[in-house]
Amino acid sequence: MQRVQRVAKIYAPPTVQMKKAYPNLDAIFGHVFSILIGEPITPNKIAIFYLVRILFQTHFGFRHQRTTYPQFTVEEKSEIFQWLYSLITSNDDLTYDSFRMIIRTAFHSNRDIFLNFISAMEHIGSGESGVNFGIEDEFYTHKYAKDPTGERMTDDSDGDLKFSSQYSFVYRWLKRVLAQYSKTTSQELFEINQMMRNWINKASDDDVENLKPESISTRLGTVLPREIDSSLRARQWVARNIHYMQKNPRRADPHDHILNYVKLIQKFQSDVYEAHLLESIVHVQKKDVESAIKAMKIFFIDSMFQLNENMKHLYKTHRLAVPSKIPLMYAPILEARICRWFGDFTTARSLLIESVQQAQLSGDEICHQMGNTELHTLDIIGCGPILEDRTAQNLNSEKDQISEDQNDRRIHRKTLKHIDDLRGHVRCGPCCAQTVDDFELVAELDSYGMMLMLMKSIVEGHYRLKYSRNAETRMACSLGVDLQERGRKVSDYGFALMSSNMIRNGLFKQAKTTTSEMLSGNLEAKNKGEEDAFHTESFAVTSANLAYSYAATGHYPEALATIQKMKTQFPEHLTWQSARHTTICESVIRFEISFMMNKFRECHSLINPLAKYSQLEFTLRKALLLSASGRDREAILMLKNLEIDDVHGQIRRHLQLASCYTAQNSFEKAQTELDKALELSDGTTFKHIRTMIGRRWATMMMHRGSHNLALEQIIELPESIEQFGSFIERCCFYLTAARCSRMTGHDSRPWLTKLRAMNLRKVWPTMEKMVLSEIAALHVDNGLMPDKKKLGQVIRMYEEVECDYPGKCHWLLI
């Protein structure tokens, strides 16, 4: 029986051993090590590696032997790291003679560093020893071995600059070199030794380029450009292009070039996930919404996993990475910003509400403030380049939204004056460490929140102009050193907003001074290393305001020159957000010029670009053209059917309707429209509205024949017209005043003199004919100043203008 059992046992199938299934981490993370690109190995890199090892041994000793040299002081370490950083980041490969001269200059006879380096290089050059990438374990562990006396060797400058620290640039560079070296084959190692010997024995600069075998700097058969051949340089290239795409797109690489490099980085250096962010920015500029959102999602997915710092948890679960909640909070904000730029307000609002809710659950005050700032931006600015009241358009229903007053209270916070003020905020999120960068971000968000509230009060017509920016309007954000230029950006936005509000209130001379001051300080960098100029949307707005101020004061050639400069600085293919302001500005100013020249067919083509940016601006100018063409009923119907939520736009519509009715001799209707405009202006703080209403009322009374009543109104307006009136507004006022003065028996020459001084023949020739007609009326036989000689001269001048510029002056429609 026992024999049968033994036989059965022998021929029995093997016992299945149950093993615990562990996840294949290499497969999960895409075989990171096999596709890792380390630091390409060149003779210069090998020499730097030897120099770092000699410096480490000079400071701590060799293995168990204590160093015979005094340890480096903090000042000496700082100087050493500066030399190493210069050598590592150099873009050009040096010859051995040049490298040796640099080492001699840097260390000379200090602790025999130069002699030890030359000895190591000569051993390699003579073939006595090969390239050795070995380095002491103490470099990684921070625990230095004991010498024979039992005393542990420590760093006397503990707590200062570390040779082996995760924050050390040299330490990270060494790890990349060793990662690349660990993957070399025997054949590649032979080539490295041969390359190093040739570099040491040959001193010609022409031979340096021939000392880099392609197999050492390749990965999967692809030779990468030097700018992205290592993760460090790839991150630097990505960071540089992201910086310039936001600051000065003309300094960034071309979009196609960036996309090609980004694809290479994503394929060969998957750890540089910032490349997806750069790709999203490029797709936004190319107006490819789907690709931009897709790249943004991939960026946050890749950044969602972080290394597991809990070693006990790692041993138990074998989870090398753990998910992070930060992308769940911040990803919707950036995706919502893309949706807002392209007009998808519903999706943007849903994403922002999700982000705010996640921030509330996580207790992240910065994310919460950022989400609320974006929500206010969505409601107040939307995606349009023109500031209009869009409350009724963006907030379709109140039941799904928090009350407006409560929403505003979220954005009103105690403005930070110092980094110590952060203690007054509830800040416990993962990105809310009390650091200088965090203080700058919170201060920036607070400033943007204040500016959004200013914009809201401006569009509602309740904002009062204040000139002390820093103390009253919060349009500046003083951050001291401001390495990330946050305070500069806030200040630029403040200048742009302030100049736009000046244009809105008729302060054209002040706007010209403000914009000129801002643009004169934004100089292009002439030499490498200098601070480059900003070509952001705030400067596009400021440039447009400068052009508007030129046009409003009658300097149209200067306005057109400013527009041409804007086209160069803000091209459509590089920054369409800024180019919108160039398009709008050119359409508005050229329409004004063409209308004064009676070129109505050209005016129709000029206002077409305005339709997609502002229905209000397009309709007002379209109605003006229709009225000038004799289609008054169609123009009035178009204006009445226009839906306007903006109080400033409503006032402008009433004024335009009043002008149309005046030209039709419908004076009662014109009076009604002016009364409505005056009623709306009573609840606002606009400085120029009453002046515009008063001038149109005086023109209406003049056209009606009530010259005495018109003259009474005119007497009250000269000071405000000079302060708030544009070039066209002043021309219409002076002509109204001149005609009313003549019809009431007063001397009209002071008003006509002002009109003649405005050089109307080159700018508004039909108005010049109206002025000549008024002068002729003075010198006729039954005029106030009969003079046949002067009358003949005026008639000849009128005929010359009529010959060059036929047609009537439609000044009653303005």
From TrEMBL:
<dbReference type="GO" id="GO:0031145">
    <property type="term" value="P:anaphase-promoting complex-dependent catabolic process"/>
</dbReference>
<dbReference type="GO" id="GO:0051301">
    <property type="term" value="P:cell division"/>
</dbReference>
<keyword id="KW-0498">Mitosis</keyword>
<keyword id="KW-0131">Cell cycle</keyword>
<keyword id="KW-0132">Cell division</keyword>
<dbReference type="InterPro" id="IPR011990">
    <property type="entry name" value="TPR-like_helical_dom_sf"/>
</dbReference>
<dbReference type="GO" id="GO:0005680">
    <property type="term" value="C:anaphase-promoting complex"/>
</dbReference>
<dbReference type="InterPro" id="IPR037679">
    <property type="entry name" value="Apc5"/>
</dbReference>
<dbReference type="GO" id="GO:0070979">
    <property type="term" value="P:protein K11-linked ubiquitination"/>
</dbReference>
<dbReference type="GO" id="GO:0045842">
    <property type="term" value="P:positive regulation of mitotic metaphase/anaphase transition"/>
</dbReference>
<protein>
    <recommendedName>
        <fullName>Anaphase-promoting complex subunit 5</fullName>
    </recommendedName>
</protein>
<keyword id="KW-0833">Ubl conjugation pathway</keyword>
